[in-house]
Design brief:
This protein has 467 residues and is mainly α. The chain has one domain. Helix content is 71%, strand content 4%. Helix 3 packs antiparallel against helix 11. The chain is globular.
């Protein structure tokens, strides 16, 4: 296997040296052409992805540069040593795609998906090519912690299979949430939905202990409408700037700069994020057409990126409420070193809450509050790996002190990050870590199997109600 990677390095190193944006322009265009997408459309998708990667990197540079001095004074004045800078998801994607192993993991996961389709173990064709970086991140982190490539690949495949199974399990719920017919092909293999099993445990406890709270649930669309601007990304950025500015004892001019910079960046994160989806649309359509020709007469689901469900108001209402909660938790959480900034809008958290609770906003907020520490701890745990990798691939933010640690506060798949840590350290031969890794992997699988059983019961109810 190392020979394969060495060969890949020889082939791809000249491309990797171009940087993440040019690399992804070329890779996405070539893959789209393989699936017989028209050249102009394939090239358009590649260019859009390169533009999105470039833009998000510049926005992150603007945000981190503006906050660097204030955050240093914040630490000095409060004594709270939140020394990890939260860059949000996009720089981490750029960093991960800068590794040749990501292309290797992509190839392996495409093969796994194809085998599962042929063996009829899934009906989902995963076309969310870009987001393979989440799975790759776990494998790369395991390698960083001590695993060899074979062990890391087995871990990525294990998680990848469960993600694909999960996409089939969630499909009827997506139909319900979108009020869509069974013919609707949209589902997702996105990593953020791998939190579903743990959310469901808390949701079942909610059923047993606090079912009466559901009568106080409220309409999230009306809440968003009532809050209006004061709950928008602009406003949250302004609150964040004022909060950090006051605690860092900044002067009024600096506070205004911090507030307006954060407001601008948080809004642009959302806008630029939509560009990534538009960039892979030609490839997704090409793969869909290919599948229709090869699997005639068989119902196929298409695994897309998560935002096709983003029209549900609960996603944003819960994120708006959880943002200040997460900020407060970060200040008092033992073991946390990351101050939420780029990930303050918790898009790695709320979609899974929506699916499991089916839009019960009170449950989403309460369960979200309980699970947020997992994300903060995972962001802290992976910071040394993210920082070292960013420097290695030339993606460390310009203008930031080289001693600064970087990470992401609401990175999808926090549990999987802990798996990568345990498996990586177990690979060194430490008996303690070997035992921990075995126990946690077994528990991870058993919890998923229990969750799958619950989802099958839910899906049977959906089917019965249609008859």
């Amino acid at each position: 296997m190392n020979g394969i990677i060495n060969f890949a390095n020889t082939i791809f190193k000249p491309l990797i040296d171009l940087g993440a944006a040019p690399l992804m322009l070329i890779v996405l265009t070539v893959i789209a052409l393989i699936f017989r997408v028209k050249f102009s459309k394939a090239l358009e998708g590649g260019i859009k992805l390169a533009i999105a990667l470039t833009a998000i990197g510049d926005i992150i540079g603007l945000l981190t540069t503006a906050y660097q001095d204030a955050l240093q004074r914040f630490v000095e004045n409060t004594g709270i040593h939140l020394t990890v800078t939260d860059l949000g998801w996009a720089p981490l994607a750029t960093i991960t795609w800068g590794s040749p192993y990501t292309l290797f993991f992509l190839m392996i996961l495409v093969i796994v998906n194809a085998v599962m389709l042929v063996l009829k173990k899934t009906n989902t064709l995963d076309v969310d090519i870009f987001d393979v970086w989440h799975s790759s991140f776990v494998g790369l982190f395991a390698i960083f912690c001590g695993a060899n490539l074979l062990v890391a690949t087995l871990l990525v495949v294990f998680i990848g299979i469960l993600k694909i199974i999960n996409s089939d399990l969630m499909k009827p719920t997506f139909n319900d949430l979108l009020d869509a017919p069974d013919s609707n092909p949209m589902t997702t293999t996105h990593m953020n939905y791998m939190m579903n099993p743990y959310i469901m445990i808390l949701d079942k406890l909610f059923d047993k202990l606090f079912p009466w709270l559901d009568k106080y649930d409220f309409d999230s669309a009306k809440l968003n409408e009532k809050i209006g601007f004061w709950g928008s990304k602009f406003a949250i950025g302004i609150y964040l700037g004022i909060f950090i500015g006051l605690l860092s004892q900044s002067n009024p001019k600096e506070i205004f700069t911090l507030s307006l910079t954060a407001a601008t960046c948080l809004e642009l994160f959302s806008i630029i994020g939509s560009w990534f989806i538009a960039a892979v649309e030609p490839l997704s359509q090409g793969i869909t057409n290919f599948a229709n020709k090869r699997f005639n007469g068989r119902t196929m689901n298409v695994g897309l990126d998560w935002p096709f469900i983003a029209g549900r108001a609960e996603v944003w209402a819960a994120a708006n409420v959880l943002a200040p909660i997460m900020l407060l938790e970060s200040l008092v959480l033992p073991g946390n070193k990351i101050l939420p900034l780029g990930g303050i809008i918790a898009m790695g958290v709320t979609p899974a809450l929506l699916v499991v609770t089916r839009g019960k906003i009170l449950r989403m907020i309460i369960i979200g509050t309980i699970e947020l520490p997992l994300f903060l701890w995972a962001g802290t745990l992976t910071a040394p790996f993210v920082t070292e990798t960013a420097k290695h691939v030339g993606a460390f933010p310009k203008g930031m002190a080289s001693s600064t640690l970087i990470s992401h506060s609401t990175m999808e798949g926090p549990v999987e990050k802990f798996l990568g840590y345990l498996v990586g350290n177990a690979s060194k031969g430490d008996i303690k870590f070997i035992m921990y890794a075995i126990l946690v992997l077994v528990a991870y699988l058993l919890i998923f199997m229990w969750y799958a059983k619950q989802m099958k019961k839910r899906n049977a109810e959906y089917a019965a109600n249609k008859n």
